[in-house]
Amino acid sequence: GESVGLHLPTLSVQEGDNSIINCAYSNSASDYFIWYKQESGKGPQFIIDIRSNMDKRQGQRVTVLLNKTVKHLSLQIAATQPGDSAVYFCADGGTYKYIFGTGTRLKVLA
Amino acid sequence: GAVVSQHPSRVICKSGTSVKIECRSLDFQATTMFWYRQFPKQSLMLMATSNEGSKATYEQGVEKDKFLINHASLTLSTLTVTSAHPEDSSFYICSAGTGFGTGELFFGEGSRLTVL
């Protein structure tokens, strides 16, 4: 069945460094992916999305890379800040119902 | 961006009682809303798809008689947890979108239910 999974449950990064959060998906027909940020006790917040006709998309301090060959996407956060500490989810939005990955907790070290 | 509001944000109830959670799209109309459940340190699990004017579609393993969903208008969906038990304690989150596959879903802030 479909699944979206993350490689690492926790990622600790020094403040100012770049963060890379990975995600694997299994449905080769998936054509739309989204990254969400969830802070403790809050709902998910949209970060960036990407369609399968692209392999890279950039936002403000964030970049999403999509490798359809190996069904992998990543979220890169430049110059990680304390406010980036949260759980990050990738989601397969190819169907009307989004399938969420297990999540990666990003800890920013001062 | 679009705003989705949930109420209440926190609720504590006794076992056996029913609790209603509201999900509103504040600045757009949503023919479809989604209800998720999230246990601590886990991902969001889709419970059901709420369709305006029709019955909700439940995911496998979700009891429709226990989790009643009503989508009476284009801006409001409600989730009622009936005869709540302590194992129903969780974080419930709703979402709505303006066009699936063309933009992101907008999520509510979540409602934390604690059943004593």
Helix-strand blueprint:
The complex is a heterodimer of chains A (110) and B (116).
Chain A: E1 4-5, E2 10-14, E3 19-25, E4 32-38, E5 45-51, E6 56-58, E7 62-67, E8 72-77, E9 86-92, E10 99-100, E11 104-109
Parallel strand pairs in A: 2-11
Antiparallel strand pairs in A: 1-3, 3-8, 4-5, 4-9, 6-7, 7-8, 9-10, 9-11
Chain B: E1 4-7, E2 10-13, E3 19-25, E4 32-38, E5 45-51, E6 57-58, E7 67-73, E8 76-81, E9 90-96, E10 106-107, E11 111-115
Parallel strand pairs in B: 2-11
Antiparallel strand pairs in B: 1-3, 3-8, 4-5, 4-9, 5-6, 7-8, 9-10, 9-11
Which properties best describe this structure?
heterodimer; A: 110 residues; mainly beta; six-stranded mixed beta sheet; five-stranded antiparallel beta sheet; 53% strand; globular; B: 116 residues; seven-stranded mixed beta sheet; four-stranded antiparallel beta sheet; 11 strands
Word description of this protein:
The complex is a heterodimer of chains A (110) and B (116). In chain A, 0% of the residues lie in helices and 53% in strands. Chain A is mainly β and 110 residues long. In chain A, the strands form 2 sheets. In chain A, strands 2, 4, 5, 9, 10 and 11 form a 6-stranded mixed sheet that branches. In chain A, strands 1-3-8-7-6 form a 5-stranded antiparallel sheet, with no helix packed on it. The termini of chain A are far apart. The model of chain A has no long low-confidence stretch (mean pLDDT 89). By secondary structure, chain B is mostly beta strands. Chain B contains no helices and 11 strands. In chain B, strands 2, 4, 5, 6, 9, 10 and 11 form a 7-stranded mixed sheet that branches. A 4-stranded antiparallel sheet of chain B has the order 1-3-8-7, with no helix packed on it. In chain B, a hairpin with a 6-residue loop joins strand 4 (32-38) and strand 5. At the A-B interface, strand 4, strand 5 and strand 10 of A face strand 5, strand 9 and strand 10 of B.
